[in-house]
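A brief tutorial aside. Many learners find it easier to grasp structure tokens once they have seen a single protein encoded end to end. The record that follows does exactly this for Trehalose-6-phosphate synthase. Read the sequence first, then the structure, and try to relate runs of similar tokens to stretches of the chain.
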Amino acid sequence: MTQYGVLLLVLIFASLGLSAFAIFISISRYRRNHPRASALPGSGEDVATEAARKVLREFEKNGQSVDAALVTWSPDTLRKILADELPDAQVIVVSNREPYIHNETKDGGVELVVPASGLVSALEPITRACAGTWIAYGGGSADQTVVDRNDRVQVPPGHPSYTLRRVWLSDEEYQGYYLGFANEGLWPLCHIAFTRPIFRESDWEAYEAVNRKFADTVVAEARNERPIVLVQDYHFALLPRMIRERLPEAIVITFWHIPWPNSEVFSICPWRERILDGLLGSSIVGFHTQYHANNFTESVDRFMESRIERADAAISYGGQVTLVHSYPISIEWPVELLKALPNIEECRVRVRKRFRIPAGAKLCVGVERLDYTKGILDRFHALEELFIRHPEMVGKVVFLQVAAPSRGTLPAYKQLHEECLRCAEELNQRYGSDSYQPVVMVAEHHSQAAVYELYRAADICLVTSLHDGMNLVAKEFVASRDDEQGVLLLSTFAGASRELLEALIVNPYDAAMMSEAMLQALTMGPDEQRERMRRMREIVRDNNVYRWAGSMLLDAARLRKRGDLDRVTALYERPNAPTGDNVVSMFERKQAVGFR
Ligand code: F6P
């Protein structure tokens, strides 16, 4: 080869090298500027890595352990955590509301109802994944006819994967424990909705007795002395202590699904010390937000002889340690039932036809239990404000409120129901016509599939709670919108507003502000809707319910390991215990396993 030939070859290789380098730099730059670019089909691992990194940063920022963040959360992840970290552990869930209710039908058959409950939507996929046992009050009219002789029934129907163990309550028990102490006492105490809590001695007695009944059932269902018991909500504040007394080696994780008030408000409860003592029987007490966790710690600090280790988020009380953490609850991702639903366009057509929404009117939906904490009346006021401030919007918007009747025998709930109906009627009379009704109010239970169909048909979803632990309607709406369209109006007083920052965040007490947010939502272009919805979908996908449960289970595993080591170490601390290398290595192991 001549000198020129060699030079030519060198030039060719140099330019190839430069081009490759330039391509590499462009790809790196693009990935840096488009962190979700890897969300293209086929690059699942990158998605997981990016999600994990993001969660990792968040965890580190909160001073939390990092390993919970290093995984992509799915049912398999949960099963793996259980198998690796908590081998042979039996998972027992306890809640008041059961995941499946069997009711008698008029023709003598049995129908199955999935209740309107955020708790149920979150816990159901978890219990399925863990193949655990769920203990709950059997309130359906046909519940007793479908159980076996041990009051158990395998669920979900058609694909049984866990055991539902039903607990029966007398009318007096139900009245005192559920309607009385839980829902007339604790519910208004914990929510800032300006409904006065009512405390009756007889309700408290029923509450205590029913908590004991559930403790007996937990002990009866436990296959050994070391189950993991997931106690749900304000119906069972006394249960953790009762379980601890009978199964000292159980891990009891209590999750409080509603807000926890500040200590001043909490102090009005006549049995405040008993409630705190009961909850401090838990290994872990979880809340949706750090703010509610702090309120709880502050209440313990004020009323109990305890030592608070703020840096470790731990409370020492009566010789036992309880961790107090926030674990924001979520929903399954992907949502299983979406697979069976029609596409968005068909959902729109079906819903608009069913509720006679005139063409040219945008559809706003509200979906929840008929509860005074949800801000339903405040939505009506905001709609009226919208019509007053922007009369051109009359005829261009319909508000469909679906409200599942709940706790309907209580005066506060009856009154709310009547006020909602009256308000809807007044708005329809004032602003409606033969062909246009601005408000459609349906006070009926809807199946989950029907609710998801509504979400998919909506232009706007209104979640305007006066106070809410999390609010899963907000997350369900986001999960339902695979078309990346639709606007979420979200109350700043719902825990979900800490995560879904791209929603239009509103103060439900400010009707003028809410009406302007409604206008903004009604006139928002598809590009902005897509940007906001895409970001919110990433958040709900990454922070799904498997992460919620997985983080708690990982913390439980750490506690169990530490407890096991403490027991072994205690052996070595006895007089005449072995000395030398063994003791040193045991001590080192104990240090290494320390949590938080
Ligand atoms: O999420 C709060 C909560 O009270 C759950 O505990 C409960 O399942 C849900 O709302 C519905 O309430 P209820 O079970 O009283 O109908």
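Self-check: The CA atoms of residues 362 and 522 lie 7 Å apart. If you spotted this yourself, you are ready for the next section.
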